[in-house]
Specification:
By secondary structure, the protein is an all-alpha fold. The protein has one domain. About 75% of the residues lie in helices and about 0% in strands. It has 13 helices and no strands.
Length: about 300
């Protein structure tokens, strides 16, 4: 799961702007390709990084470097720092989305394949639809159908070999999706920093919480990390947390929200494909069936809300 503040996945922001005609139309498909490939590949990158780095410390280091780097760039460019209230709200949201969301995904990938982890996280919009009811936005009858279909998919996925072999990993992934969903719904009604400063603040705050939690568990930096693990960490920082996020911001300003958030459907099969081709992961019939059912349920809810 990556730097996103959205009810569509462990990655970003909700579209609130119009769709002006882009000055360079070729950037749109390029940005969409980046979202599909980069965010889909981050699950495998996490697995490679876990070869040397412990899970929560891995997440903490990733967001500390990316968050402080983005924060520094924004301050140098003259962006205003968040207020005290905005820092507080960013800290709460960051812990929910990045701390619990991404941190638990990293933890789960110690026993669950990267492709199956991506599929499980794809159930996040289903939880978001439920949590929205806490604020009076109860799902419609058709959206309830999407919820029912999606949760059936979660049950089917848990019957497959990918999750059934690790109940702790399965619970961690479901809890990660739930935490990301609640944080997304809650943050939409709070005074948050604006634009990229929101992401920078969330990553910075979440990194502090993750590192403290990791150290309390006894996690430590590896004395001799492998080259592949360190390269995977660098990939997560530069591509997963900075480049892909910038591409997403550009897409949000130039295309319809339904198109911008289409990565929610594309990332799981992309992650499965990367896992099979590059890491020799296997996918069983229940895993494939669960992925298909979850994506149908998410699609029903998202398309209805887009209308």
């Amino acid at each position: 799961m990556d730097t996103r503040v959205s009810v569509h996945a462990p990655h970003d922001v909700v579209a609130t702007t119009g769709q002006p005609v882009p000055a360079r139309p070729w950037l749109v498909p390029l940005a969409m390709l980046a979202l599909y490939v980069i965010w889909g590949s981050t699950y495998l990158a996490i697995r490679f990084a876990l070869e040397s780095y412990p899970p929560f410390l891995l997440s903490g280091i990733r967001f500390l470097i990316a968050g402080l780097g983005l924060l520094t760039v924004l301050v140098v460019r003259g962006a205003a720092l968040p207020t005290a209230r905005q820092w507080r709200n960013a800290a709460v949201t960051g812990v929910l989305l990045l701390g619990m969301g991404n941190g638990l995904v990293c933890f789960a990938e110690g026993s669950v394949s990267s492709g199956i982890a991506a599929v499980a996280v794809a159930s996040m919009p289903l939880f978001a639809a439920v949590y929205s009811g806490m604020y009076g936005q109860w799902p419609t009858r058709r959206e309830t159908l999407g919820l029912a279909v999606g949760f059936i998919g979660v049950l089917v996925l848990n019957l497959g070999s990918g999750l059934s072999s690790s109940r702790i990993g399965a619970f961690a992934l479901i809890f990660a999706a739930s935490a990301w969903a609640f944080g997304s719904v809650w943050s939409k009604r709070q005074d948050m920093p604006s634009g990229p400063m929101n992401t920078a603040a969330q990553m910075t705050c979440a990194s502090v919480a993750l590192i403290i939690f990791a150290l309390s568990l006894g996690e430590r930096m590896p004395a001799h990390p492998t080259a592949r693990a360190t390269m995977a960490l660098a990939y997560l920082v530069v591509f997963g947390s900075i480049i892909a996020f910038s591409a997403y911001l550009y897409v949000l300003k130039t295309v319809r929200p339904a198109v911008a958030t289409s990565y929610a459907y594309v990332n799981p099969p992309v992650a499965v494909l990367f896992g099979v081709l590059l890491a020799g992961e296997t996918v069983g019939p229940f895993d494939l069936a669960g992925m298909a059912i979850i994506l149908v349920g998410v699609g029903i809810i998202t398309l209805l809300r887009a209308r």
